[in-house]
């Protein structure tokens, strides 16, 4: 009965069905990768189990076995179904917004932005469980492996695309809403040594361009757009575009959902 239930869950999951179909075609097209694809995709009955395997294999060290990490990740996905839901939303968001992504299997196997974000989600689960040393270990390993540093206490929504993903920094009290897109070298940071709530709150549907720095306990309103290289030090109203150092409002957001359109060109705002 248990295996029947697993098959039923798999068959009712269109995201996982697509990934498995893409994996089978990938093996047909490149047989030399058969072992990799089977180990990371086809040997698993659910996306959650595949994600737990990826988490464990990536973060394992001589001092911390993949088996222990796999048990932690399996427990996280079992106890918090929202983790798997968020992962599916992230996959769909990447396929929708990243011109370089043509299959759902690609972020799962190859994109460090997606993989680092899923590791953070497990680390955040550990943080909420009070297992802070383990959460910090996940953060440290994630930073070493992917060049992305997200504090385990940071709260991040669903449908997130982190494109290229190199040198992303997200501080402890940061909050990132749903359906946000950000590019490489983005910082959501503080402004000094102050303790407490000191990091940005990013609304839903925000697009943050490459190299942008958003600093301090400020609010970036929903569906706004931050131009590449900007330094944002004050609140941004919803549906606006800001640019410059320090950033200022230069116009409207340009469309209803800038995070989905990924349009980073400023047209006549200056």
From TrEMBL:
This is Serine acetyltransferase. The keyword Phosphoprotein does not apply. Residues 15-119 form the Serine acetyltransferase N-terminal domain. Signal peptide: none annotated. Its EC number is 2.3.1.30. It comes from Rhodobaculum claviforme. The lineage of its organism: Bacteria, Pseudomonadati, Pseudomonadota, Alphaproteobacteria, Rhodobacterales. The keyword Repeat applies. It holds the Pfam family SATase_N. Pathway: Amino-acid biosynthesis; L-cysteine biosynthesis; L-cysteine from L-serine: step 1/2.
């Amino acid at each position: 009965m248990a295996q029947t239930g697993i098959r039923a869950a798999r068959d009712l999951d269109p995201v996982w069905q697509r990934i498995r179909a893409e994996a089978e075609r990938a093996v047909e097209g490149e047989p030399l990768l058969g072992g990799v694809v089977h180990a990371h995709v086809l040997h698993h009955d659910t996306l959650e189990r595949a994600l737990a395997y990826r988490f464990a294999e990536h973060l394992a060290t001589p001092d911390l076995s993949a088996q222990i990490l796999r048990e932690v990740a399996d427990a996280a996905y079992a106890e918090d179904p929202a983790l798997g839901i968020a992962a599916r939303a992230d996959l769909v968001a990447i396929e929708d917004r990243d011109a370089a992504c043509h299959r759902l299997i690609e972020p799962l196997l190859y994109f460090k932005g997606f993989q680092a974000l899923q590791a953070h989600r497990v680390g955040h689960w550990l943080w909420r469980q009070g297992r802070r040393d383990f959460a910090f270990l996940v953060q440290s390993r994630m930073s070493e492996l992917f060049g992305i540093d997200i504090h385990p206490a940071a709260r991040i929504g669903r449908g997130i695309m982190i494109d290229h993903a190199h040198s992303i920094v997200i501080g402890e009290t940061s909050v990132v809403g749903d359906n946000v897109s950000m590019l490489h070298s983005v910082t959501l940071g503080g402004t000094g040594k102050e303790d407490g709530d000191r990091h940005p709150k990013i609304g839903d549907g925000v697009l943050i361009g490459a190299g942008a720095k958003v600093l301090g306990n400020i609010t970036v309103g929903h569906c706004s757009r931050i131009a590449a290289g900007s330094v944002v030090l004050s609140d941004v109203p919803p549906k606006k575009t800001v640019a410059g150092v320090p950033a200022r409002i230069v116009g409207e957001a340009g469309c209803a959902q800038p995070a989905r359109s990924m349009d980073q060109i400023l047209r006549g705002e200056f």
